[in-house]
Amino acid sequence: MRFSRRGFIVAAAAAGLSGATPAFAGGKLQVVATTGMIADTARRIGGDAVEVKGLMGAGVDPHAYRQTRTDIVAMTKADLVLWHGLYLEAQMEDFFHKLEKRGTVVAVTDKLPRDLLRGHDDYADKFDPHVWMDPRLWVFVTERVRDALIEKMPAAEAQFVANAKAFLAELSDLSDYAKKSLTTVPEEARILLTAHDAFGYFGAAYGFSVLGVQGISTESEAGLNRISTLVDTLIERDIKAVFVESSVSDRTVRALVEGAAAKGHEVAIGGELFSDAMGPDGTYEGTYVGMIDHNITVISDALGGEVPERGMNDRLSAGS
Amino acid sequence: MFWNALTLQLGYNATLVTIGATLLGIAAGVTGTFLYLRKRALVSDAISHATLPGVGIAFMLMVLLGGDGRALPGLLLGAAVSSWIGLLCVSWLTRLTRLSEDAAIGAVLSVFFGFGIVLLTVIQAMGAGRAAGLESFLLGATAGMLFNDALVIAVGGALTLVAVLILRRPMTLLAFDPEYAAARGINVGRMDLAIMALALAVTVIGLKIVGLILIVAMLIIPPVTARFWTERTDHMVLISGLCGGLAAWIGAALSAVAPAMPTGPIIVLVSFGLFVTSLLLAPNRGVLAVYLRHMRFQRRVHLRQGLLALAQGQPIYEAYTVRLLKCAGLAHADGVPTEAGRARAAKALRDEKRWELVRADQAFESAAALYDGLRDIETVLTGDQIAEIDQRIGGPQGVAS
Amino acid sequence: MSLELAANMGAAPKAEIPSDSPLAIRGMTVSYGQKPVVFSVDMTVAEGSMTAIIGPNGAGKSTLLKAALGIVQPLAGQALVYGKPLKSARHRIAYVPQRASVDWDFPTRVIDVVLMGLYRELGLLRRIRPHHIEKARACLERVGMTDFADRQIGQLSGGQQQRVFLARALAQEADLYLLDEPFAGVDAATEKAIIDVLKSLRSEGKTVVAVHHDLTSVRSYFDRVFLINTRKMAEGTVDEAFTSENLNQTYGGRLATGQIDQLELAAG
Question: pLDDT > 90: what percent of chain B?
Answer without folding.
Answer: 44
